[in-house]
DNA sequence: GGGAGAAAAAATGAAAGAATTTATAGTAGA
DNA sequence: TCTACTATAAATTCTTTCATTTTTTCTCCC
């Protein structure tokens, strides 16, 4: 597949003209990361901007006492990295770690800023992406603030289903190496609690779990758990 | 003060040239809201975009079982409203309610989209604003996920201090009608718990509270509470 | 302008409930 | 085999829930 066709499939670049895309592509560099590898760290200066072509990346923040919080799970087509442009906030406020082997496009902050002013359509698109991130974060805030652990885990499972789930008959298959630890770090609880809830639901037949896979057998059950 | 000078003070418009500003101002309309008044509701279609000139606005989400969560507190210079442009997400995902009497600038979605493509500098600025919202939301996510109630309330007090606090000798004065209920809705706890913690801290001399005012007497104490 | 009554906000205690902590053990990939 | 992940249980801690009281603010009326 040509580079242009490749780029056209990325949400951030929809609406851009082919001749614009041709000029833009040169600024991006493809990079690959192994499962578990870190892409950049909280505090890194100017990590640049990343677009996921393939794979799953978790964006995490750590507290001073060593707790880890996953603030976002970025998947194919998603944008992450340092987006505060023209601000004196020089360093990343989160760490990016690949959850699977991953392929990404990378661009430096300065190059991206240059593109932004040159291609207004791109600026509109990135605004749109940023807004989606805000609304998604607000949804998570609501879940964390208003729901008990079961509701929060149900929320996250449904979010995962929406983002990376594949329908297979009656069930939705989430094929990704997401551990109970990850679920706990997304929902603000402990591994033990995440394990207890997941295994209870498995026993009760609402979900099924295997290595690197979570199947949702009863969506309605999960939806009803959310207040 | 002329309209142009007025606009130049708004963060969203910094970096725009005077002749650009002159053209832009016409698209914005000034509106005023009384304390407690709703600006728009979750589900409203195309509420447009608002910039706060004066006052404090809370952005809230409600759960199906009636709980309210304050996802953001917007203050002077902040932008809020429907920002997903060119997307098929036609309605607001949160409610905006003024916490004080407020003065805002308003622009319709379509007008704003027009401005964006016409003035790339504005697009860069709005991207920047959106990113700040994301990072702020992630900070809150971390707090909600990793900290106990005391730490969460401490976090919010420090956030308020940073946003709207005024130094007065050793203390920081937060002059705003923020109730314990509001604090609870920002930190995902109950009024009773918020009241208990605030009055305990008051007794212990770390904070002082009066009608429409919270004073932080010991920043270090609050900072130490945050993990 | 002041006072009465209503409404809203703050305060507090006891009991119940939810989730964490701590501990221990089994399982499956690498 | 070793490490990371999953599993389960009991005790403890934190927070909520429910019930009641006090304090403050608002508003209407004289």
Strand content of chain A: 25-35%
Instruction: State the share of residues found in helices of chain A, binned by percent.
Output: 40-55%
Q: What's the Cα radius of gyration of chain A?
A: 19 Å
Based on DSSP secondary structure assignment, what is the total number of beta strands of chain A?
A: 12
SSE pattern of chain A, N- to C-terminal: HHEEEEEEEEHHHEEHHEEH
- Please report the two chains with the greatest interface, counting residues with C-beta closer than 8 angstroms to the partner's C-beta: A-B, 51 and 52 residues
- For the report, how would you describe the main beta sheet of chain A? 4 strands, antiparallel
Q: Multimeric state of these chains? A: homodimer
Strand line-up across the major sheet of chain A? 1-8-3-6
Topology:
Two copies of one chain form a homodimer.
Chain A: H1 3-8, H2 18-25, E1 29-33, E2 38-40, E3 49-54, E4 57-62, E5 68-74, E6 79-81, E7 95-98, E8 102-107, H3 109-118, H4 120-146, H5 149-164, E9 165-168, E10 171-175, H6 180-187, H7 191-204, E11 207-210, E12 213-216, H8 219-225
Antiparallel strand pairs in A: 1-8, 2-7, 3-6, 3-8, 4-5, 4-7, 9-10, 10-12, 11-12
Chain B binds a DNA duplex (30 and 30 nucleotides) through helix 7.
Characterize this entry briefly.
2 copies of one chain form a homodimer. By secondary structure, the first copy, chain A, is of the alpha+beta class.
Structural notes for this entry:
Two copies of one chain form a homodimer. In chain A, 42% of the residues lie in helices and 25% in strands. Chain A has 227 residues and is α+β, with helices and mostly antiparallel strands. Chain A has a four-stranded antiparallel beta sheet with strand order 1-8-3-6. In chain A, strands 2-7-4-5 form a four-stranded antiparallel beta sheet. In chain A, strands 9-10-12-11 form a four-stranded antiparallel beta sheet. In chain A, a hairpin with a 5-residue loop joins strand 4 and strand 5 (68-74). The termini of chain A are far apart. The model of chain A has no long low-confidence stretch (mean pLDDT 92). The interface between A and B is large, with 51 and 52 residues.
